[in-house]
Amino acid sequence: RQPFPMAQYRQRVNVVWFKNNDLRVHDHEPLALAHQHKLPVLHVFVFDPFWFGRTRHGRFPKTGSFRAQFLVESVQDLRQNLANLNQNLCVRSGQSTAEVFQQLTAEFDITKVFAYSETLFEEQAIESEVRQVLKARSPGTQLRTVWGTTLYHLDDLPFDPSTAFPKSFTSFRQRVERSASVRPTGYEWGQADVRLQPPPKAPAQAQTSFWGPMPDLPDLGVPTPVPDKRIQLATKGGETAGLQRLQQWLWETKGLSKYVGTTDWGTPAKCSLGPDSTTKLSPWLAHGCLSVRLVYQEVVRYEALCGRTKFSALLIRELIWRDFHKLGTIAWGNDLFKIKGPCGWGNGLTWVRNDDLLQRWINGATGYPFVDAHMRELKATGYTLHLGREVVAWFMTSDLRLDWRLGAEWFESVLVDYDCALNWGNWVYFVLQQAASRQARASAPTTLATTEVLQWGAEHDPKAAFTKKWVPEVQHLTATDAREPWGAVCRTHQV
Ligand SMILES: Cc1cc2nc3c(=O)[nH]c(=O)nc-3n(C[C@H](O)[C@H](O)[C@H](O)COP(=O)(O)OP(=O)(O)OC[C@H]3O[C@@H](n4cnc5c(N)ncnc54)[C@H](O)[C@@H]3O)c2cc1C
């Protein structure tokens, strides 16, 4: 795109800067704040090429096909939802966020830019570039960031996460549940009786092209995903589809009445429970198409109307897990991405780099069908159950001993619900920490992990239906042999 020539007259505006993780109009504080001022509001989204580059260690695409498609659909839906409010969304691609703001400051007299604040270094680096651009243009122009994306607001926590973050999830949960409460959704709209301001006029020299076309995946350098019929639940990006899924799961199929906690290991046969056993809201939550407070509020409303059950408490616990990882990033900082992880969790562990083993893990060709089934599902659909994520991650770290960061980066690349804090947080808290404590406990830690992987297969895929679905090579075998095909081989050869 050619930069627009410097405008003669620059209209005064406020800006709402939407990012990959807040793609909605409901319960959106920066949007509400921007419209409290008596100025036209320009809404902006940038498909920054940075997010379509490569991961640091594994050189995987940072955003794989499934997530890229979900993102494009979500931005498209945001544009439509803003249009329903007589607003526009300015979409830019092929330029960095800083370059886009550089242009916008030439075209408009920007008073304030409103956005959610960030805690992770890549996002903060972009934020800091935008600050510099705004300051260079006019020292008075502010980037006003507000906290969002968690259930509990940062200011309501009973501890300072940067200095006194609880060491365990249980302690975190008990402290927030005891001392903090969840703010109602959209409280900032209600408080100020906000009316939407008119959209700004496109700069005279730009007019029709100003709002920008929606890119398609090839424009972003991403191949179009190939749908796989075996997917658990096909998802479409956007606030509209996210709200529909919430409505359908909670109120129509009454999914909460049979909800199985994602991190609850007590329920057997998790692989055969069907798509409604958990909410499957993660892609919409990760892209901010749904506000986590709205999900919480709906669960509380359901309880009020249909009675309190253990299932709602289970779901709220998972939402608190989400907060634990998101707020944990404040305490853990960049240690989250280092080989030893935060708090020295990975101390004493040694790792190998073996490209052949890594490729076999990625492609679901390790020879352990229960592991391979999850890895193939992940690659073919962008999703696998929490149970599967733990199984393959533990296998990769405890058995293969491969540098865990490559696993986290592969997940980053392929997951449709990738959320930096949740992905890296789960890798360090569930996987790295466990690998270290296993090593400390067991004399033969690798054998221990392998045995557990087989045990989980038997427990959670007793008929091997899930394994056979993704590893058709073992379809003709009995359930036990399908999960452990070496047994059949030994019998055939009378070993
Ligand atoms: C190695 C590893 C990597 C992961 N990476 C991601 C990721 O990038 N993005 C992501 O959304 N989840 C991630 N998870 C957590 C979890 O697997 C998914 O949130 C869950 O499978 C999503 O399915 P659901 O929406 O049906 O979950 P539900 O059981 O319906 O839970 C509702 C919501 O709670 C949150 N949640 C549930 N479990 C966890 C958890 N363990 N940690 C944090 N939040 C949780 C999610 O936002 C989820 O959508 C990861 C887990 C592991 C073990």
TrEMBL record:
One of its GO terms (molecular function) is deoxyribodipyrimidine photo-lyase activity. The record marks W351, W404, W427 as: Electron transfer via tryptophanyl radical. InterPro entries: Cry_DASH (IPR014133), Crypto/Photolyase_FAD-like_sf (IPR036134), Crypto/Photolyase_N_sf (IPR036155), Cryptochr/Photolyase_FAD-bd (IPR005101), Cryptochrome/DNA_photolyase_1 (IPR002081), DNA_photolyase_N (IPR006050), Rossmann-like_a/b/a_fold (IPR014729). Binds 1 5,10-methenyltetrahydrofolate (MTHF) per subunit. Binds 1 FAD per subunit. GO terms for biological process: photoreactive repair. Keywords: Chromophore, FAD, Flavoprotein. FAD binds at Y259, T278, T279, K280, L281, S282, D417, Y418, D419. This is Cryptochrome DASH. It comes from Eutreptiella gymnastica. Its cofactor is (6R)-5,10-methylene-5,6,7,8-tetrahydrofolate; FAD. Signal peptide: none annotated. It holds the Pfam family FAD_binding_7. Residues 13-151 form the Photolyase/cryptochrome alpha/beta domain. Belongs to the DNA photolyase class-1 family. The keyword Flavoprotein applies. May have a photoreceptor function. PROSITE patterns: PHR_CRY_ALPHA_BETA.
